[in-house]
Structure formats: structure tokens, C-alpha cells
Amino acid sequence: MSAGTSGSGLSDAIAAGCEQARRLGGLLEEEFKALSAQDLPRFESMQAAKEEILAALAQLVQGLTTAAGETGVAPSASMPDDAQWEQFQQLMSDCREAHRRNDILIRTKLESIRAALRILQNSENSSSVEVYDRMGKMYGYRRGRGYEDA
To answer: Which residues, in sequence order, are CB contacts of 6 under 8 Å at separation 6+?
Structure first.
């Protein structure tokens, strides 16, 4: 394979990677909308497509790493078009941030659900009402003697 063909192959691979990264970014945005609307069936329906895109991206990165290993240079040093490689890296960085945002939203919603379940479980065990102060801390009815009581 000549250097021109190799460079063109790398360029084509990076272009395909950019397209996959754009698709992943769009899918992550749709996931966020589904999660925000609590549309779990829509969210779950997107997972197969996301796995497919991630597998394609993993294969691309593996191919670039293998190609770099054969030439003995880092993937970024062997790229024929630095602007295209930088675009791919930026797209992947954007996808990582979108994934983190979705992860935080999922974790926040799960914690809210867990808290609601704890409240429901505790209310079944106890007939007392729990009150919270301005800081969201439990405000107990039985407090120790404080300076107000002295």
C-alpha cells in the first residue's frame, strides 16, 4: 500500500468516525430529551442504536491504533489531515460530556426515586410526620437543650 493510499484510508476512516460521532451526539441529545420527559420506552429503544455506534467507533479506534502501531507513530502524528482529526476528537469530547450529563440526570432521578421510596416505607412504619428545615435537613421534634431553652 502506498503512502497516498494509506493516508486516504486514514482520512476516510476519520471521516466515517466523525459521522458516527455526530450520530452518537444526536442520539445522546435524544436520550436526554427522553430522560427529561421520563419517557423510558423511548430511552430504551435508543440503546441498541447507541451500542451499534459505540461498537463502530471502538472498531475505528482499534484500526487507527493498529495502523499507528505498524507505522510506529502515534495516531495523531500519522493523520493526513490534522483539522479532520481535531474535529473527530472534539466531537468525541462533546459526546463524552453529553453522556456525563445524561448519567448525572439518571443518577439524580434514581436518587429521587430512592428517597421517595424511603419516605413511603418509613411512613408505613411510623405515623409521625417528618419536617425539614430550610437547609433540607431533618428537623426533629425532640432536640437536646439548646441555648434557646436555657
So the answer is: 67
Measure the CA–CA gap between 146 and 126, rounded to whole angstroms: 27
CA distances to 3, 10, 64 from 73, in Å: 14, 13, 11
pLDDT, tens only, 36-84: 999 999 999 999 999 999 999 999 888 877 776 665 555 555 555 688 8
**Count of Cβ atoms closer than 10 Å to residue 126 Cβ:** 9
In 3D space, the residue among 50, 81, 78 whose CA is nearest the CA of residue 64 turns out to be 78
Q: Which grid cell is 18? A: 466523525
Maximum CA extent, the chain: 90
Q: Structural domain boundaries of the chain?
A: 3-139
Residue 19 CA to residue 39 CA, distance in Å, equals: 27
What's the CA gap between 92 and 22, in Å, rounded? 9
- Which ranges of the chain does DSSP label H, i.e. alpha helix? 3-36, 40-45, 47-71, 82-125
Q: Which numeric CATH code is attached to 3-139?
A: 1.20.58.300
For the entire predicted model, the pTM comes to: 0.67
**Distances 71 to 11, 12, 66, 127 between C-alpha atoms, Å:** 16, 18, 9, 72
Instruction: Tell me which residue has cell 466523525.
Output: 18
